[in-house]
Amino acid sequence: MSELPPLREVISKYGLSASKALGQNFLFDHQLLSRIAKVPGKIDGAEVFEVGPGPGGLTRALLQGGASVTAVERDRRCIPALEELGGFFPGKLRVIEGDALEVDAPALFEGKPHVVANLPYNVGTALLVGWLSAEWEPWWASLTLMFQKEVAERIVAAAGTEHYGRLAVLAQWRSTPKIAMNVHRSAFTPPPKVMSAVVHIVPAEAPEGVRLKTLENLTAAAFGQRRKMLRQSLKGVPGALEAMETLGIDSARRAETVTMAEFVALARTLG
């Protein structure tokens, strides 16, 4: 097999540049990309779903790790570069031109893939919320996702900390997220204005007797007016004040002090 050309050479050959409109920032550091590809654990022989591969930096690290990669890319300028990369790994790379928000990802896989992606900043949170809100057990084995550091901190935040809010409760009530590594802005081309972090999320069992919709309504009301006491912010949620009294949750508290387990207990009580 002929040798894989350097990524910068590929980008130059196809005249690629990061598109601001698509929220793109390219990563060239092969050691860093290899570290990200190793976050899910052993990927040799595993299926991987990648969103927004761009010119294929992370894609090549995943393929070199032995994974079979399905990549969804909406920037058609990048498709020829990805197809060329596929030629170096016959039968291991499937490229789909399209919008990841519209692709029926579960239908693409026989087993449960690892999702690994340097997500475009402008759709990252929407994709994550969709994956966390879908049926449980989920269609994916794990999520390894690059976010702006502030978003990553909101996903893993504990109650009582400044980043704790709806996203933390949604991520943590039936999965276990952790920050796997921080990534300096200088690693990207062009460098974004903010630092980034890679979050690794593995699914856990969903607590019984809890409806996602109820939990979402509770956290929307509570964190929508996070400076107010719960007796104010939750008064519009039918049964919430009575449920707090039943569970011994002080209605003078504010949303950011309520733990994920307490929100789950409230949602279960409300049915």
TrEMBL record:
GO terms for cellular component: cytosol. Keywords: Cytoplasm, Methyltransferase, RNA-binding, rRNA processing, S-adenosyl-L-methionine, Transferase. S-adenosyl-L-methionine binds at residues 25, 27, 52, 73, 99, 118. It catalyses: adenosine(1518)/adenosine(1519) in 16S rRNA + 4 S-adenosyl-L-methionine = N(6)-dimethyladenosine(1518)/N(6)-dimethyladenosine(1519) in 16S rRNA + 4 S-adenosyl-L-homocysteine + 4 H(+). It comes from the Bacteria. It is found in: Cytoplasm. One of its GO terms (molecular function) is 16S rRNA (adenine(1518)-N(6)/adenine(1519)-N(6))-dimethyltransferase activity. Its EC number is 2.1.1.182. SMART domains: rADc. The keyword rRNA-binding does not apply. The keyword Cytoplasm applies. Residues 32-205 form the Ribosomal RNA adenine methylase transferase N-terminal domain. It is an enzyme of class 2 (transferase). Pfam families: RrnaAD (PF00398). CDD domains: AdoMet_MTases. Specifically dimethylates two adjacent adenosines (A1518 and A1519) in the loop of a conserved hairpin near the 3'-end of 16S rRNA in the 30S particle. May play a critical role in biogenesis of 30S subunits. Belongs to the class I-like SAM-binding methyltransferase superfamily. rRNA adenine N(6)-methyltransferase family. RsmA subfamily. This is Ribosomal RNA small subunit methyltransferase A. It comes from Sphingomonas kyeonggiensis.
